[in-house]
Design the sequence.
């Protein structure tokens, strides 16, 4: 709540790709609309990573995930994923690299029906985000979609950033998140 | 005789269908315990149906509105005698402006179809509940 009240906040809207993890992330990393269905066998060119030279950490466009940290989403423990992503991100930030990182634990746990550990996972993610934001100069914290419900994921995700969203009275799209990060880091 | 029996069956079937249709129309369009999605077609009917109603004015781009939404859903379940609805202000600007809703989220409390209280912002459940209880006890 402290972060929510002290940063620029908004809502990510992802109607079309909310149930497609890899395609959602590809829209961000290509800054263009995507139509792929599921995880890729190998990543295509990723303009956002190329332009910003950011370290990709655990990005779920492939499985095992893509980046300097690559995890097998079928096997990695929910809590281990959070700590591994945090450590990898801290390492990259400490050497002045920009970071694009993903934590899939909450989504994976809810997909597996593990509602009972949801709050603990959120608490762990909170702690990890706090550590990272103490080190980062600027940040965008977002979810490309909402929680899983009976009919699939909610299309609305969080958006908290050290920079304003593109339009005050509008939701934020996945493509806009990519472009915002590009502007933050500088081309 | 066979013809009459067939005709009788057909008439009975038609009558049953008519009765089912009539019952469906009479069913409450605003079921208790749920948050109703409101628009210009059902808003006025909604606020006049129950003695006390609560309307959550929201928009898709409003992050605090998403924090408030589950609180309104909880209150709807806990106070089935009260009508709870939500109105998207981007899709229904005329209703929002009728009540002077400028900030989001805004929760308006209605009594006998008239607005009697307003709560602005994503406030804790206890705040909305306290204001609701005042109106219910009047």
Sequence:
């Amino acid at each position: 709540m402290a972060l929510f009240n002290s940063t620029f906040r908004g809502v990510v809207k992802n109607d079309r790709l909310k149930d497609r993890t890899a395609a959602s992330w590809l829209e961000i990393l290509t800054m263009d609309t995507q139509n792929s269905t599921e995880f890729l066998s190998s990543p295509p060119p990723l303009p956002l990573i190329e332009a910003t030279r950011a370290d990709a950490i655990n990005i779920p466009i492939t499985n095992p995930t893509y980046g300097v940290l690559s995890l097998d989403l079928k096997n990695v423990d929910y809590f281990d994923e959070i700590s591994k992503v945090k450590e990898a991100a801290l390492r990259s930030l400490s050497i002045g690299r920009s970071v694009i990182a993903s934590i899939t634990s909450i989504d994976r746990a809810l997909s597996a029906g593990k509602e009972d550990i949801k709050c603990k996972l959120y608490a762990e993610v909170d702690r990890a985000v706090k550590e990272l934001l103490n080190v980062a100069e600027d940040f965008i914290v977002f979810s490309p979609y909402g929680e899983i419900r009976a009919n699939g994921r909610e299309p609305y995700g969080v958006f908290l950033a050290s920079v304003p969203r593109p339009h005050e009275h509008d939701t934020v799209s996945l493509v806009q998140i990519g472009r915002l990060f590009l502007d933050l880091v500088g081309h | 005789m066979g013809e009459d029996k067939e005709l009788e069956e057909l008439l009975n079937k038609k009558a049953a269908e008519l009765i089912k249709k009539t019952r469906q129309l009479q069913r409450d369009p605003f079921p208790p315990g749920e948050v109703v999605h409101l628009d210009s077609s059902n808003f006025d009917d909604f606020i006049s149906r129950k003695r006390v109603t609560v309307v959550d004015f929201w928009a898709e781009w409003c992050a605090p509105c998403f924090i408030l939404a589950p609180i309104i859903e909880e209150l709807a379940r806990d106070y089935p005698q009260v009508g709870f609805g939500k109105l998207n202000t981007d899709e229904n600007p005329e209703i929002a402006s009728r009540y002077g809703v400028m900030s989001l989220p805004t929760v308006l409390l209605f009594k006998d179809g008239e607005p009697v209280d307003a709560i602005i912002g994503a406030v804790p459940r206890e705040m909305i509940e306290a204001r609701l209880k005042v109106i219910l006890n009047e």
